[in-house]
Amino acid sequence: MPLRASTMVTIGVGATAAVLVAGLIQAASDDPALSTALTVSVPEKYRSLVESAGHTCSEISPNILAATLTQESGFSPTAQSSVGAQGIAQFMPSTWESSGIDGNGDGKRDVWDPQDAIPSAAKYLCKMAQETKDVPGDKQSNMLAAYNAGSGAVRNAHGVPPYRETQDYVRSINALAGKPVKGRGNLTTAEQAAAAVNAAADQIGKPYSWGGGTANGPSTGTCCSPNGSTGTYVIGFDCSGLTLYAYAQAGIFLPRTAAEQYAASEPVSRDSMKPGDLVFYGSSAASIHHVGLYIGGGYMIEAPRPGTNVRYSSINSMSDMFGVARPVSQQKKEI
After folding, report:
1. Tell me: the pLDDT tens digits for 71-85?
2. How many CB atoms lie within 10 A of CB 319?
């Protein structure tokens, strides 16, 4: 934000999940983040608006703008955060007062109207780019960090500030904006999905470790979770460490955190879920806090929380499912 009805299946502990996997994961191929072609998924009713506003200045693109709006609100015009950020672009009231514009020329500046808020978000990104143009480091990352935390914080930190929320925010938008184009290139196959599911199933019973898990397998984690739990002395996985590992065994390399994994994957509807899809939980794209690996029949494999082990769970075991996304086959190293 600116300034701040499936059939039930029986699962055994030693079960192999490959038989649950069918069909193809959607196709994709590489395209630059700053391409003039809009490749980030955008609701049709906002597409032309994003394409137009995405050319407000040379520092942004339709993909950067679309990725920012995805991260901010998931394109929900009625979104409101716990700290008061409002609308599809999550402007704080004071920032909207100084930077909101009348994008549709109806004589009003309405933060809840996407026709005003989307062009305003583009203009504000451009403003942040100018206010951080002399800051060392990656210019795009500095601009995005300023949109989230303010340009003063970026200048004071001489780059992206050391706030986990802001750092995750920047990584997620950069990953989404540079996401491969849908419908062309390398397919993520049913065999790759099966490999990921089977790799995760082989870890059933491994302990939860906050920050634990790499592309190579279970590992010690870090300190500390929001409730003070540490993974420093526990060899295992946290939720995104497990999914990162599982897909690495299929040759698909995901970012480290759940929010980053959502941003780097292709959203699909719940009705279109397939085994191998990732299930995400949180109140918004920016606040995703958990991910599990769907295996079919309404179940997933997950590393739930400190004090538990990797296990099979219903996808409805948590009440705040945000969405489902399908990993895209990319030749990348672990982030």
Report:
1. 888 889 999 888 899
2. 6
